[in-house]
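Subject: Sanity check before I submit

Could someone independently write out the structure tokens for this chain? I want to compare against mine line by line before I put it in a report. The sequence has 285 residues.
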Amino acid sequence: MNTADHEKGLTAFKKKDYETALKEFKYLAKAGNAVGQNGLGRLYFDGWGVSQNYKTAVKWYKLAAEQGDADAQCNLGHLYRMGKGVRLNYKAALKWYKLAAIQRHARAQAVLGYMHQLGKGITQNYKTALKWYKLAAEQGNHNAQCRLGTMYSVGKGVPQNYKIAAQWYELAAQQGYEIAQRKLGIMYGNGQGVSQDDKVAFNWYKQAARQGDAQAQFYLAKMYAEGHGVFRSYIRAHMWSAFAAKQNFKQAEEFLKQIRVKMTPAQVEKAEVLARECEAKNYKG
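---
Independent answer below. Compare away.
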């Protein structure tokens, strides 16, 4: 069995041709191929091309993981951590994550850092968390980059350093990670580790807000209301705070009431029309 056999299933999977992917992965999996077993596990986990079945996903992930497939080891770790298809077991999750992490699997390294940071199944240890985050972040994992930024920002496991925090946030933000974009916006808004710049803060908030981040939508609304980094517009402030309030962001709910008091009925109506248009365009309006 050669690489071409793997590629056919993987290519079909990437194209979302799950019927073909299922056929190819089944053939490979039954022949004992780890890539096929992991792929089949993924299809059962997500319910793509088959009825969703976590227990069956566990079965195939485990067969691949026991052959040393890092992706399957990480996936199996997720199932133990979430308690899907198996009883929730942080120690088992840690075992599989670590096996994948020592193979330089970035996603496993990032989650391993997270579990050490929170003390899930292991004694809380910020320095160990930092180690795993760094290994994942240096491979470009945006979750690890963002979490590393937060550790430097608050001084957990390392001396507080806003400049380094901003650098890690920016690496994750440039990859389109909305949480990092919002946090970088905060850094620019407060002048922490970077030169204070409301316009740059506004642009990062906007990128995160367009991806549906409620907190960024609220911050964007405030900037429109106060005219910081952008022209003052109660109409757009109303629109963005309404989006955040719709996601039950409490501060936005209160802010929306305050904004409405300052607006005419015609302006409120315009804001609501604009919101519907923006939502139809997936926040790109």
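---
OP: Matches mine. For the report I'm noting this point. The chain has a mean pLDDT of 95.
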